[in-house]
Design brief:
By secondary structure, this protein is an alpha/beta fold. It is built from 20 helices and 25 strands. It folds into three domains: about 120 residues, no CATH class; about 290 residues, FAD/NAD(P)-binding domain (3-Layer(bba) Sandwich), CATH 3.50.50; about 160 residues, 3-Layer(bba) Sandwich (FAD/NAD(P)-binding domain). The strands form eight sheets. Strands 3-2-1-7-19 form a five-stranded parallel sheet, with helices on one face. Strands 8-17-9-10-13 form a five-stranded parallel sheet, with helices on one face. It has a four-stranded mixed sheet with strand order 6-5-4-18, with no helix packed on it. The longest helix is centred in the C-terminal third of the chain and has 21 residues. Bound molecules: NADP nicotinamide-adenine-dinucleotide phosphate. NADP nicotinamide-adenine-dinucleotide phosphate binds next to α10. The site of NADP nicotinamide-adenine-dinucleotide phosphate (NAP) has 24 residues, from α10.
């Protein structure tokens, strides 16, 4: 039933809303000095709060409108952004943040400098993968009118969101930040959208922007070979009907980082008579009712799936090798109220400022990563900000486990928070306190025909083992074979010290090849969430192709010297960060390449600096031919 939209409903909506976003949205419309004088929401007293709520309700009763406002002029936009966070940002920060509220239809995307040139006959780009990043690239090429084909190994779009269907899978950053900047106001049912909803969103994008009809499903790339005589990539694809060949002038690898599950090998695995499941291969008909289940791993996946399995199973044993810092998120698991949905649709600009506020909560993350030696000399563990978080999370663990010391002693990590990818609590700690759940911290020795034996000789009888053991993250673009100029092999080149790229995207010897979410590309600090970066990386690749086409060339490639310099700087910058230091947990972190002991997944740069590198092509570093 549709709700009645009256003053009471609108007041409820404002009271449930992000009051900072309300404050800035209202000020954008009214320029009311009384609103400007209010502090950020966290510092509002009762009187100030009432002023804000009452004024917002009054305004909305008169002006509710589904239209999105035009982007304010730059000076005003910057002032509104400062007002939102209650501080003054520098020029570099403004440059990287100005499109976060996403007033433009297609922020960050690239256009032709003039009229679209005639493209060489048969010109096309091949995008490998139709997950989040492949779709972003396809939409960018749609906007430019550059022909492309998406080659997807699965029968549907969605990438990792199509593959992973384990219980309670959902995003762990608020959904409003998990939207493309060009597709706004998706009607998420929950604040943290479930996997099925994210799949729905991606399929909707694929169809809405015409990508679906350019996608060839069940086409798995097995090899990509650059033909120097024609400046073409020749791609071999495995299909259900045999091998197929596709030629493309450029390729964009959008195959994701979590593409290859890590299947652990335990002694005795072959004699175990029960079922072994990896979450990335979850059977649709799995029912834990009445079963004895082991869950190995407590990363984001293992944590997400414990609570729903524990509800149904007879007994669950959670095998934890290393404790994690697991933190709560406001509104996790909660439905988006009809009042908030209405506000998003009818308070012009609220969506933009709500999104900006949600992303702004990540601006300060760099502060967690850099050591304060003076603080340490005085007995601190890493730096004041990081230590404060450690204390808060330690307190949280104690509360969630009801003070059960046997659990608390084994759940508090020794390494500093933010050394590894933060894990979000969906009730994991609470689930550990259930009568039918046991936390096991002894190492696994072997599997027996009916269970798991730990090094202390205890055997736990189980029917099902869930190996929530993550992914082989260091195996970028694997197992396909890539042969570049002069027949050089990408994986051979990467065997020296792990996968490397320039800006995470380009490798010398591999012209017209771009990788999205490639090695060392995930922004570590001052970040803005990955969906925005899929658009930014796509725009970088598009900018290179646009210039190549506008200047009548057929190759664009990073120079060896630029690649080497970039990676030397990257290693140096990374070495100062928590992740590679002893206060972190470098040997227990998939962000770090375990074989070569170097940062692998993340871009170590301060976020706004990396944003500048990726939005301004440095043509001195590239070669056009
Ligand atoms: P993960 O973070 O790599 O965690 C793997 C877990 O398995 C760790 O606890 C690890 O222990 C354990 N493990 C691995 N091999 C083992 C072995 N041989 N014996 C015992 N334990 C073993 O993997 P993940 O949980 O799948 O998460 C990967 C990433 O996917 C996340 O960081 C996140 O980026 C993404 N993700 C996101 C969401 C979301 O909500 N948006 C959900 C799931 C995943 P150690 O710690 O000792 O290595």
């Amino acid at each position: 039933m549709e709700p009645t939209i009256d003053r009471t409903f609108i007041r409820r909506a404002i009271e449930l809303a992000d009051l900072n976003a309300v404050r800035v949205t209202l000020y954008q419309h009214t320029h009311d000095p009384e609103i400007a004088a209010l502090p950020v929401a966290a510092q509002l007293d009762e009187t100030g709060r009432e002023v804000l709520v009452a004024k917002a309700v009054d305004w909305l009763c008169e002006h509710a409108d589904p239209a999105m406002p035009a982007e304010p002029p730059e000076v005003e936009l910057r002032a509104l952004m400062d007002m939102a966070t209650g501080g003054h940002m520098g020029d570099l920060e403004f440059e990287s943040r100005r499109d976060l509220p996403a007033f433009k239809a297609f922020p960050w995307t690239v256009e032709w400098s003039d009229a679209k040139p005639d493209l060489p006959e048969g010109f096309q780009v091949a995008i490998i993968g139709s997950g989040f990043s492949g779709l972003a690239m396809a939409v960018q090429l749609e906007l430019l009118g550059i022909p492309y084909v998406v080659l997807e190994r699965r029968p549907d779009p969605g990438g990792t969101w199509s593959v992973n269907r384990y219980p309670d899978i959902r995003v762990d950053t608020i959904s409003i930040t998990y939207e493309y900047s060009f597709e706004k106001k998706f009607p998420w049912k929950e604040y943290f959208g479930r996997g099925a909803e994210v799949r729905e969103y991606l399929e909707y994008i694929s169809k809405k922007y015409g990508v679906f009809t350019h996608t060839r499903f069940e086409r798995e790339l097995t090899s990509a070979t650059f033909d120097e005589s024609r400046d073409l990539w020749v791609l071999e694809l495995q299909t259900p009907d045999g091998v197929e060949t596709v030629e493309a002038n450029a390729i964009v690898n959008a195959v994701g980082t979590f593409a290859n599950p890590n299947f652990p090998r335990f002694e005795g695995q072959e004699i175990f008579g029960g079922q072994i499941l990896h979450p990335a291969r979850w059977p649709a008909d799995f029912d834990a009712t009445g079963k004895r289940v082991a869950i190995i791993g407590n990363g984001s996946t293992g944590v997400q799936l414990l609570a729903p399995i524990a509800e149904d199973a007879d007994q669950v044993h959670v095998f934890q090798r290393t404790p994690q810092w697991i933190s709560p998120r406001d509104k996790y698991g909660k439905p988006v109220e009809p009042e908030i949905r209405w506000l998003v649709d009818n308070f012009p600009g609220y969506w933009n400022w709500w999104r900006y506020m949600a992303i702004a909560s990540l601006f300060g993350t760099h502060g967690y990563l850099v050591a304060d030696e003076e603080w340490k000399a005085q007995g601190g563990k890493f730096n004041p900000m990081n230590d404060k978080l450690r204390d808060d999370l330690t307190g949280y663990i104690k509360v969630q486990t009801g003070g059960r010391q046997d659990l608390v002693d084994r759940l508090i990590p020794e390494y500093a928070p933010f050394s590894r990818r933060p894990v979000v609590d969906n009730g994991w700690y609470k689930a550990l306190t259930r009568d039918n759940v046991e936390l096991v911290t002894d190492d696994i020795a072997r599997l027996t025909p009916t269970g798991i034996e730990t090094v202390d000789g205890t055997v736990r009888e189980v029917d099902t083992i869930v190996t929530a053991t993550g992914f082989e993250v260091a195996k970028y673009l694997w197992p396909a074979r890539y042969s570049g100029r002069g027949g050089i092999e990408l994986h051979e080149q990467w065997s020296v010290d792990g996968p490397r790229a320039y800006l995470g995207m380009m490798v010398p010897g591999f012209p017209n090849m771009f990788t999205l979410y490639g090695p060392n590309s995930q922004p570590l600090s001052g970040g803005t969430g990955l969906p925005i970066w899929y658009v930014i990386w796509s725009a970088y690749a598009a900018r290179c192709l646009v210039t190549m086409l506008e200047t009548g060339r057929s190759r664009v490639e990073v120079k060896q010297e630029a690649f080497t310099r970039y990676n030397t700087d990257l290693d140096e910058t990374a070495s100062n960060l928590l992740l590679l230091r002893e206060e972190g947990a470098p040997d227990k972190n998939y962000y770090v390449n375990s074989e070569h002991r170097r940062l692998q997944v993340s871009a170590p740069w301060y976020g706004p600096e990396y944003h500048r590198m990726c939005t301004h092509v440095n043509w001195d570093d590239l070669e056009l031919a």
